[in-house]
From TrEMBL:
Localization per Swiss-Prot or TrEMBL: Cytoplasm; Nucleus
Key words of the record: Cytoplasm, Nucleus
Name assigned to this protein: NudC domain-containing protein 1
Residue ranges constituting the CS domain according to the UniProt record: 290-377
InterPro entries: CS_dom (IPR007052), HSP20-like_chaperone (IPR008978), NUDCD1 (IPR037895)
Protein's organism: Daphnia magna
Stretch forming the signal peptide: none
Lineage: superkingdom: Eukaryota
CC per GO annotation: cytoplasm; nucleus
Main location: cytoplasm
Length: 518
């Protein structure tokens, strides 16, 4: 259970006596220059029709600032060149635009790609994506106007994208205490088809279904390790955020995340450990005389057929099924129901599974047709070998009863009251956005606060810190800084500044209006 905390403003930063701004007729200096190569703003194609696609494409800033240098800014041109801008030179007639790196282009067409994105992880390190599924780790050198150093790619990978577009939301470089290695953490946002998401638990846990939308937002937290001059993949965690992500950052020293999103959300994949509840050994080793049957199976010379029974309303989004040559795994929602090594190898390509009215059926094609199977899963005594499908049906009532007992024990029991008994005042609003801290070691959310005002914008903080975010507070805008984990106090977000009457227009004494601008 998350620990609740408050976003409590500092009174010394608020000015209750502020009356407003005075109109000035002085002209503001405006400098306008043509860039060497234009910027192309990509838009969703016909297959990218969800709200999350529109949001990901629309809320994209092509101008990138640098936390380590306030004298330069960067942009990526339509031919995928990265240009450095000397900000001081913009007041002159000949501004300084310098091309520092050319992204490799692996495909001519960029249809369906996200806009290219760039994030600075350290004083001399950046991560870049072309928007088409390729991630580059780049040595930038010191990024000052005077430094003419051209960038060099140190590592490129398609593992994160899997040929699917993604957008980099944040990155951070951390060095171990012994200075023997460095760890680079990158956050990548994807909008994926529900059927293509690799998940260790069922997406229905988060209310995902094709009836609502065929797409889901995924935030991927990938880590790379730098040892002896070489970069290599270290770990990947994937979080499902069905209702969209508003903010994501890595908290120093790179062991936790700060997110702003609507519930439900949670981790669905970890490359180092399974996030599904494991099948305990004592559950596998049932006594032969017990009637707690989890599955039935039969065999012919060519194949093995397995049956498992679930609730009749079970859909494919409630299950995670993994068939490999030597193993079989079934996860129902968040609980593992079958997992282990098969008695003999099978042919994965010709093995199938189907689900109909809650009955899950596997047809596993044998590699060696001459072998008879004495058991299905090694060290798992919960299965019963039967003669045929008719005999298997006799066990269904027993398995159904077992399923109901298991769901009741696991928190799947029906509520003690129905929603029809609720009054309007009892109804909790489901569209509230919250600030979360996600712990990467436990894979759990540890802290949570409900946003007290409208989320306005984000801004870079000091080097090494997560970006700050601005919330509406009455007519003001308050800047909140997510804390790093080095501080020896309970985690939270610190109120660091107040922008008086931000976006506030007093149209008349009787009518007041608000506006938001980038």
């Amino acid at each position: 259970m998350e620990q609740l905390f408050e976003l409590r403003p500092r009174k010394d930063l608020l000015d209750p006596t502020f009356e407003g701004y005075k109109l000035s007729l002085d002209s503001l200096p405006v400098y306008k220059h043509e860039v060497p190569v234009a910027v192309e703003h990509l838009k969703p194609n016909e297959e990218q029709f969800s709200f999350q696609h529109v949001k990901t494409f629309g809320l994209h800033n092509h101008l990138i600032d640098d936390p380590w240098s306030d004298e330069v800014a960067f942009f990526i041109s339509k031919d995928l060149q990265i240009f450095k801008i000397n900000l001081h030179s913009l007041v002159s007639q000949s501004p300084e635009f310098k091309s520092v790196w050319q992204l490799p282009r692996h495909l001519e067409s960029r249809d369906g790609w996200f806009n290219a994105s760039l994030s600075f992880a350290g004083p001399e390190l950046a991560v870049v994506t072309d928007g088409g599924g390729v991630l580059h780790i780049v040595d930038t050198g010191v990024r000052t106007p005077a430094n003419s150093h051209l960038w060099q790619a140190k590592f490129s990978s398609e593992d994160l994208g899997n040929s699917e577009p993604f957008k980099i939301t944040h990155s951070m470089l951390n060095t171990t205490e012994s200075n023997q290695s460095e760890t680079l953490s990158v956050l990548a946002l994807k909008v994926e088809s529900i059927d293509k998401v690799e998940s260790q638990i069922a997406l229905s846990v988060f209310g995902c279904s094709e009836k609502e939308t065929p797409f889901i937002n995924c935030l991927e937290w990938v880590q790379y390790e730098h040892v002896d001059g070489h970069w290599s993949f270290k770990q990947l965690k994937r979080l499902a955020i069905p209702h969209g992500l508003d903010y994501a950052s890595i908290l120093s020293p790179g062991k936790a995340l700060c997110l702003i999103a609507r519930e439900p959300l949670g981790i669905i994949f970890d490359s180092k450990k399974n996030v599904a509840a494991p099948l305990e050994n004592n559950e596998r080793m049932q006594d032969e005389t017990e009637t707690k049957v989890a599955y039935t199976w039969t065999e012919s010379p060519e194949e093995v057929t397995v049956w498992m029974t679930f609730d009749k309303q079970t859909s494919k989004h409630d299950l995670v099924v993994k068939i490999e040559s030597q193993t079989l795994k079934v996860v129902y929602k968040q609980q593992t129901y079958l997992d282990g090594e098969l008695a003999h190898p099978i042919s994965v390509g010709s093995s199938t599974w189907t689900l109909l009215d809650g009955k899950l059926e596997f047809i596993l094609s044998k590699v060696d047709k001459s072998l008879s199977w004495n058991h299905l899963i090694q060290s798992d005594l919960r299965g019963r070998k039967v003669l045929d499908a008719e005999t298997a049906a006799d066990y269904e009532s027993v398995i159904n009863m077992t399923m109901k007992e298991t769901q009741a024990e696991g928190g799947g029991r029906p509520p003690v009251f129905s929603s029809e008994q609720l009054e309007e005042c009892d109804d909790m609003p489901m569209d509230e956005s919250c600030v979360f801290r996600f712990d990467g070691e436990t894979n759990k959310f540890t802290h949570k606060a409900i946003l007290s005002g409208q989320l306005l914008f984000f801004t870079q903080s000091a080097p090494g810190l997560a970006p700050a975010f601005c919330l509406r507070h009455d007519v003001d805008g308050l800047i909140w800084q997510p804390m790093g984990d080095e501080l020896e106090q309970s985690w939270g977000c610190l109120h660091t500044a107040a922008l008086q009457a931000l976006g506030y227009i007093q149209a008349s004494k009787e009518q007041r209006k608000f506006t938001v601008a980038p």
